[in-house]
Specification:
Length: about 550
């Protein structure tokens, strides 16, 4: 470090550290770095999980404030202060991580961001459960994670002047900690909020190095520490900051009085299990008041076939008692079609001890069971190949459907349904059927009919041609007959098993029977010595398909240019 005169003993210790680091680099550096990577990834995962909880708390808090701002408003304003101070600190910590990688790798920020940061889906800070894309440092792909000179220079700077970034960081942490403690009404000696550096209240905290000498927080954590350790520590500080934010939010949220409703305008909510009901099953739903109190037992009056409850029809309503602030509904789903009902939810206002009624209405659709089976490539099943199909049923998840086929096999592969038929089916037709288990009963969803056909014949080609003029070199380079499946959606192959080759030389017919699809040396010699205008004939071409059948393919006639 510049501006610092070392004693002989300190020089000896520094030399020992250099030897130690050399030994680490030669022997166990990989294990040490891997340990830091494991801890760092754990911290990153913890921070993402905590971010999701914090976002949910902000959303719930903001919803309460929008419904009763005069009551929740002061606490919501404090929550926004927490959010602003936390965002400022987290942005600063992200900046330090970026700078540490820059100085250790000797690269600019644009290069670092492009090489070592990856796009990751994270919870939106205050987005009602939405996910956003954010660039996150991937420490595992950063080279030279064991460098410590440049990171130490950046974080510590001049030891006497204390001008390194670590000293700025400890001040920011202390200021943020004081703000959170003040908002929560806790003393400055409280350990409920972390981010403790050199002081706990007015008490100075002493750190010591391996020799027992006193150190401040900055030297203790960032003096001659490798890049991997620095990044892991910064992520730990981020975790402490998020923990402080979460604790402050929960403190403010619980401070809203519970003597009466948390909302001035309570709205009833109907939460059905599904609005699409199979005939013969039940419609089930939950009716509750928004921000309901679990200590209350509301009552609901329900009347089917109506849009609202009036003085004229209230005597025909059905009274259902709730428990724990929730009323559960259950209607039989008799006939198909649209159904509606209305009702009122009654709750006792704790502040006035009077009953208050809140009307609601809802509708749902009852439908008979149905099954949709659709081939993903063609409208038939071909013998000998895997035919992908889509099997769905409205109102059912994929894992609830139990399909079957009248001939062949039906199985899952890579998340898709596949039909495999190895041999001809009588009548050339199969049925795909499906059932589902609903409340312990097996429900037949339906069935679909499919035609079964053999795979069409391929077209025999040489160099992509079946006839006409061909260049001698192109002819020789082709070297074989290729069966081509033109305009066919499946990836499958035919194998040419034999063919008859012939040409005319000086008026003589020169035939040759060949096994396989390749040109024999004799065929290649005849082509190589051929005159312009000489014709070559490939006939009786036999090919074996994926269904095991032997097909006779088209003849090929080619003439040398």
């Amino acid at each position: 470090m510049s501006g610092y005169k070392e004693t002989p003993r300190q020089k000896m210790i520094a030399m020992m550290y250099l030897v130690l680091y050399a030994l680490l680099a030669l022997n166990v550096s990989k294990e040490v770095l891997n340990a830091f990577l494991v801890v760092n990834q754990s911290m990153v995962s913890t921070n993402e999980s905590l971010s999701a909880k914090i976002a949910t708390t902000y959303d719930r808090f903001e919803q309460q404030n929008s419904l009763q701002p005069e009551k929740v408003g002061p606490f919501w304003e404090s929550a926004k202060r927490v959010r602003a101070h936390t965002d400022s600190l987290l942005n600063y910590l992200d900046h330090i991580k970026l700078r540490l990688v820059e100085v250790s790798q000797q690269e600019d920020s644009a290069s670092v961001m492009a090489k070592y940061y990856r796009d990751t889906l994270v919870p939106a800070p205050y987005g009602e459960g939405q996910m956003i894309t954010k660039k996150i440092l991937d420490l595992s792909i950063v080279p030279n994670k064991n460098r410590y000179n440049n990171p130490t220079e950046y974080m510590i700077g001049n030891e006497q002047l204390k001008n390194g970034e670590a000293y700025k960081l400890s001040k920011r942490m202390a200021a943020y900690r004081d703000t959170i403690l003040n908002i929560m009404g806790l003393p400055d000696t409280s350990t409920k909020v972390g981010l403790i550096t050199n002081y706990l209240g007015k008490q100075k905290i002493i750190y010591r190095n391996a020799d027992g000498q006193k150190q401040d927080w900055e030297m203790h954590n960032f003096y001659y520490t490798i890049l991997a350790a620095d990044i892991t520590l910064i992520n730990k500080i981020i975790s402490e900051a998020k923990g402080a934010e979460f604790d402050a939010l929960n403190h403010l949220y619980s401070s809203v009085t519970e003597k009466d409703y948390k909302f001035s305008n309570i709205k009833p909510i109907v939460i059905p299990r599904s609005t699409y009901i199979l005939e013969g099953n039940n419609y089930e739903a939950e009716v509750m008041a928004a921000a309901y109190d679990t200590k209350t037992n509301p009552n609901v009056r329900i009347l089917a076939g109506t849009e609202n409850i009036t003085d004229k029809n209230i005597n025909r309503t059905q009274l259902i008692q709730g428990k724990g602030g929730i009323v559960k509904l259950k209607f039989p789903a008799g006939r198909p079609g649209e159904h509606k009902y209305s009702g009122t939810i009654e709750m006792v206002n704790p502040s006035t001890n009077e009953k208050t009624k809140y009307p609601f209405s809802f509708n749902y659709l009852v439908a008979p069971p149905s099954l949709t089976v659709a081939p993903l490539k063609m409208n038939v099943f071909y013998i000998g190949v895997e035919n992908p199909v889509s099997i769905t049923a409205p109102g059912f998840a994929d894992d609830q459907i139990r399909p079957s086929i009248s001939g062949g096999e039906l199985y899952r592969k890579d998340g898709n349904w596949m039909v495999k038929i190895d041999k001809p089916i009588p009548g050339n037709k199969v049925y795909v059927s499906a059932t589902a288990n609903v409340d312990g009963r097996t429900v037949v969803l339906g069935r679909s009919l499919f035609r079964v056909k053999r795979v069409p014949d391929p077209e025999a080609q040489i160099a992509g041609q079946t006839n006409g003029l061909i260049d001698r070199n192109t002819f020789l380079a082709a070297g074989a007959i290729i069966p081509n499946m033109k305009d066919f959606e499946f990836d499958l192959y035919f194998v040419v098993t034999s063919y008859t080759f012939a040409t005319i030389i000086n008026g003589d017919w020169i035939p040759q029977n060949v096994n396989g699809n390749r040109f024999t040396p004799e065929v290649l010699k005849l082509i190589r010595n051929a005159r312009p205008g000489q014709k070559f004939f490939f006939e009786n071409i036999q090919a074996k398909g994926p269904d095991g059948t032997i097909r006779s393919l088209n003849p090929i006639t080619l003439e040398i240019k």
